[in-house]
Every structure is written in C-alpha cells, then in structure tokens.
Amino acid sequence: MKPRQHQRFKNQPKPDAHKPGPRKPDDFHLPLTIVGGGAAGLFAGCIAGEGKLPSLIMERKHKPARKLLMCGNGRCNLTKNISAAQMLEEMGEPAAAFLNHALNACPPAAIMRWFEQHRLNLKQMPDRRIFPRTEKASDVLHTLTDTLRDTATALALNTTVGSIETTSHPTAGFIVSTQSFKVFTRNVLLTTGGVSYPKTGSVGDGQKIAKALGHSLLPYRPGLIGFVIDHPWIRARQGHTMDNATIRIICDSRLTYAGEGQLDCESWGIGGAAAYNASRWLARHQPADFELEWQVQGEIIRVRKPATRPLKEAIVTVGGVPLNEINPRTMESLKCPGLYFAGEIMDIDGPTGGYNLSAAFATAKCAVDAARGG
Ligand SMILES: Cc1cc2nc3c(=O)[nH]c(=O)nc-3n(C[C@H](O)[C@H](O)[C@H](O)COP(=O)(O)OP(=O)(O)OC[C@H]3O[C@@H](n4cnc5c(N)ncnc54)[C@H](O)[C@@H]3O)c2cc1C
C-alpha cells in the first residue's frame, strides 16, 4: 500500500508559504534600543514608555540594576535635595559644564517628584540626601520595573550586546547584535555604566562599542575610593568611624584640596566620604606628588602619596567616553548620529551623596527626550 498523499486544492498555499521571506529592517525596527539595565537604562526605559516611545532595554545580567541595589549600602541615596546649580557647582568640572542642560531640565526636585509620583515615599537626611523612606534600594528598583511593566516597556535579561553596526537604512540606523538575535533600531542609547564592581555587569562593554563606532576613550581611574595606608593612628582605630573629619591634599607645600566628612578606619587604610571625595580630586588632577593629611579632633596625620584601593572597588569610574564627543543638550554622539549616552559610561563623576545617580537619571531623560524628537 502506498502512503496517502495530502491532496492540495486549488489556491491552497504551498506548504512552506507561511514562512517569511527575507525580512527587511522595516519589519523589525525599533525607535530606541537601550543597552544596559542599570540606573540610567531603567530610568530611560521608564521615560520612553511614559512618552509612548517604544523601546527595548537589553541587560547582560539575569537581574537588572545590580549596582543600584548596592547604592548607599543597600539604602540608595538617589539624589540630594539641592538646586541644580548647587549640584553642578559641587560636582565641579568637567561634569558641571557638560551636565548644565540635563540637570537643569531634570533637577533633583524633578527626580524626587518623579519617584514620589510613582508611589515611592522618600525621606530627607539632615544633610539633604534623599533616600527611599524604607531605606531599601530594592524599592527604588521596583518603582522603576513597575513603571516599565505599566508602560509595556520590554526588558530583556541575560542579553549581552556584543556589537552594534550602523546601517544605511533610513528607519533602522543600527543593528544591535546579541549572541542569539539581532535588533534593527533607529536609535541606540548606551547605558552600560563604568568599570568598577564588574560583578554587577559594568565591565566596559559600552565603551568598546562606542570606540568601534568612532569614539575615543579616556583612561579609567577610580573616582571615589579609599586610600591604602599603614599607620599606627589608623590601626588603633580600626573598625571605627570618625564624623566631621577634615581631609586635605597638599601639593608643593600648597593646600590644593580640603574637604570634610566621615572617615572610616579600615584594616587596609582609610575610607568614608571624606577620603572618597579626596580621591576623586586626585583622579581628576593627578599631581605627580602630594601629601594627604587628615584631622580629627585636633589630631593631624599626614602621609606622602598613598595609593588608592583598586579601580574595581571604586564607587564611580573617572574616564570612559569623552564629553567633548557628545552633545550636552541631547546626549547624542557627535561621531555617530542616532547613538546616545547616559550615566557613568561617560567621563562624568560627582562626589558621594546622590550626585552620581542624579547624573544618571538626568542624562537618561535628556537622551530619551532627544531621541523621541529625532
Ligand atoms: C558600592 C556603591 C555604592 C554607590 N552608592 C551610590 C549612592 O548611594 N548614590 C549615588 O548617587 N551613587 C552611588 N553609586 C554610584 C552609582 O551606583 C552609579 O553612578 C550608577 O549606578 C551608574 O548608573 P549607570 O546606569 O550608568 O550604570 P550601572 O548602574 O553600572 O548599569 C550598567 C548596566 O549595564 C549592563 N551592561 C553592561 N554591559 C552590557 C552589555 N554588553 N549588554 C547589556 N547590558 C550591559 C550592566 O550589567 C549594568 O546592569 C554607588 C556605586 C557603588 C559601586
């Protein structure tokens, strides 16, 4: 007996007719692809979703915003209740000039309002730093992911972007490639962060992608980090925190930096906000030689040119994509139209106290607003 043949009727499509032919970029193109689901990327996705701009966030880790969850020792100091002008002044150059437009368009008050309008209760510390009232960074993350859900903004986890190519197609400016699929997209927003705490996913991928698309890169340096110092004064106080310490940097017998704040005595040296902010000054100015001095209740200790802890432990990365290659009013690349940046991937850094997350949120909003108009 012969196997029965399926009878084909007139006009019935051929068996493989449902299979799509070669697809054109129009079939897939997305207005915006956001690479990196950290503070800047998630906030960008929320702003895009609320503005009805379809976007897809691609995040290499199996959970988003691992670094955000570490912020403020898990409490997340998400901004500081000061004016944009004061925040810019305290951040100093080069961030201040570059962030002038973005932070004035999205000042700390607007960041606080956005989170409060999305049902995150906030609390203010005496020094004006802002935290979620629960003091849980996870509540900040849930506010962001709830908004993504409510605006139907896609967040693809376990999705590492390996490369991005430009195309000549009018509506699909880029092909974003992962190990398993490609996305055709009109605009790309790189929010892959700096290079510290690589276990959080911030490993410098975005900087390499930016380089392949025509950008130069500034060398990385630890921005907010402790100093490695073996000194009896520290050893005697190991495990203790000193409030209201003064820290100074002296170059060629001249006082070049002075700051105040908390000083933590650790097994390896000194940390805490006062030390971190001093390290940031050094990362920017890089004096050939200097002395570091700290003063606590009348006692003054001075050491010569201490090393810092490694970059992978820094709270913020100095270096990355140079600011003079990015339009400060739009966050769009001056090298590659349609490519945008937000957050720590750029050479911006601020002191401890909510400045770095504020910069991530403000630059994310600036980029999305520009991509929507573009
Ligand atoms: C311990 C610690 C405490 C801090 N506390 C505070 C604080 O209280 N207040 C404050 O203002 N700032 C704080 N900061 C700084 C702040 O966390 C960062 O400035 C901020 O998270 C930067 O946001 P971002 O979105 O640019 O980068 P990130 O938050 O680092 O996010 C980048 C994301 O991109 C993803 N990614 C990377 N490469 C790829 C790729 N190829 N494909 C897909 N995804 C990719 C990463 O997995 C990551 O999720 C702290 C930092 C640290 C380390």
SSE topology:
Blueprint (H helix, E strand, L loop, with lengths): L24 H4 L1 E6 L3 H12 L4 E4 L7 H9 L4 E2 L3 H8 L3 H11 L2 H10 L4 E3 L4 E4 L4 H14 L3 E3 L4 E6 L7 E5 L3 E9 L14 H8 L5 E5 L4 E2 L3 H5 L4 E11 L2 E12 L3 E3 L1 H13 L5 E6 L2 E6 L2 E2 L8 E4 L18 E3 L13 H19 L1
Helix pairs in contact: 2-7, 2-11, 3-7, 4-5, 5-11
Bound molecules: flavin-adenine dinucleotide (FAD).
The site of flavin-adenine dinucleotide has 42 residues, from helix 2, helix 3, helix 8 and helix 11.
Q: Could you characterize the architecture of this molecule?
A:
It is a single chain. This protein has 374 residues and is α+β, with helices and mostly antiparallel strands. It has two domains: 255 residues, 3-Layer(bba) Sandwich (FAD/NAD(P)-binding domain); 82 residues. The chain has eleven helices and 19 strands. The structure holds flavin-adenine dinucleotide.
Q: Quick gist of this model?
A:
With 374 residues, this protein is α+β, with helices and mostly antiparallel strands.
Count of spatially separate domains = 2
- Return residue spans where pLDDT drops below 50 for at least 5 consecutive residues: 5-9
CATH architecture assignment of the largest domain: 3-Layer(bba) Sandwich
Per DSSP E runs of 2 or more residues, the count of β-strands stands at 19
Overall shape: it is globular
| Ligand list | flavin-adenine dinucleotide
Proportion of β residues?
25-35%
**What is the name of the CATH class of the largest domain?**
Alpha Beta
CATH superfamily of the largest domain: FAD/NAD(P)-binding domain
Give the topology string: H per helix, E per strand. HEHEHEHHHEEHEEEEHEEHEEEHEEEEEH
Oligomer: single chain
Average pLDDT, all residues: 93
Number of helices: 11
Return the structural class: alpha+beta
* Rg (C-alpha, Å): 24 Å
Measured as a percent range, the helix fraction is 25-40%
